[in-house]
Amino acid sequence: MKQIVIACSLFGLAACATAPAQAQTASCLPAAGYSRAQLDALKTAQWQVADDTARNRLARALTACLGDPDPTLRDGIVFEGLQHWLRAKQITPEMMRALAADLEAQLTAPDPQGFRRPFAALVLSEVARADRVEPCLDAAARTRLLDSSLAYITSVRDYRGFDEREGWRHGVAHGADLMLQLSLNPALGKPELERITAAIAGQVSPAGHFYTYGEPERLARPIIFMSQRGLISEEEWTRWFAQFIPAQDHNLFASQAGLARRHNVNAFLYSVWLNARLSESTADDVLLPGAEAAIRAMP
Question: pTM for this one?
Answer without folding.
Answer: 0.90
